[in-house]
Amino acid sequence: MLASTSQRAAAVARLVDLALPGQIRIGTTTSEPVSRLPSGVAALDALLDGGVPRGRISEVLGPPSSGRTSLLLTLLATTTRRGEAVAWVDLTDALHPESCMRAGVDLHRLLWVRPRQAADGLRCAEILLQAGGFALVALDCGGTPPGAWRTRVWPRLLRAAEQSHTALVVLAPQRIVGSPAALGLRLDTHRTRWLPGVWPLFEGFDTIAHLERNKLGWSHDHAARLPVRS
Asked: CA-CA-CA-CA torsion for 116, 121, 125, 127, nearest 10 degrees?
């Protein structure tokens, strides 16, 4: 059996070599490197091997006040400073323009979409991905997703992200994308930080980012500590 299999493989190789120009290796594939969007946080970029992958779906998970929105603002600021356009599909109306400006986001390069319901939000995200021209599309679902978050939607969004070479980042309290997600990053509040003084003022908190899912290959570390300002 081994000899016959080897002989068949050699015959196929000779046939391909005669029929097609160039160098061909049977049984091997060449994977292209995945382009990344740096987050602007050194510890997180090291954890993600350079940043959020383009052409993929990434989930940022965590309860309220875990740092999801702050991390997204940092990512938006870093991306717009590079001269690229971004979009935020905001189902919970959480975007605050002044906070965006303080975080360094170029509002001229930010498209803010406020859909009325979850189904509209999914459709908006798909339209934005299909349109192209955006380095990042963020889909913020806020609290617990309603029944409109259908499983069959995510493979379609993944195809659109791959074709437009756009990073789709989904913010949610728990995993909702399933297998189409390339990355799953969970944020947990570690401790609060206070400015010293007679009346201490709340400065922010430290968040632990846990890499729960990574289809692109694991790095040495699975967690990183991130400082998040209020």
From this structure: -60
Beta strands in the chain (DSSP E): 36-37, 52-53, 57-61, 85-90, 110-113, 134-140, 167-172, 181-195, 201-214, 223-229
* Mode of pairing for the β-strands spanning 181-195 and 57-61: parallel
Nearest residue to 207 via CA among 188, 221, 223: 188
DSSP letter for 174, please: S
Q: Phi/psi of residue 108, each to 5°?
A: -70, -15
**Per-residue b or e along 48-80, where b marks 16 or more CB atoms closer than 10 Å to that residue's CB:** bbbbbbbbbbbbbbbeeebbbbbbbbbbbbbbb
Residue 90 in tokens: 């905001």
Whole-angstrom distance, CA of residue 57 vs CA of residue 43: 21
Maximum distance among all Cα pairs of the chain, rounded to whole angstroms:
84
CATH architecture for the domain at 34-229: 3-Layer(aba) Sandwich (3.40)
What is the Cα 213 distance to its own chain's centre? 12
pLDDT digit string (tens) for the chain, length 230 residues: 445 555 665 665 555 455 445 454 555 554 567 899 998 888 889 888 899 999 999 999 988 777 888 889 999 999 999 999 999 999 888 888 888 999 899 999 999 999 988 888 899 999 999 999 999 999 998 775 555 566 678 999 999 999 999 999 999 988 889 899 999 999 887 656 555 666 656 555 677 888 888 888 765 557 666 655 54
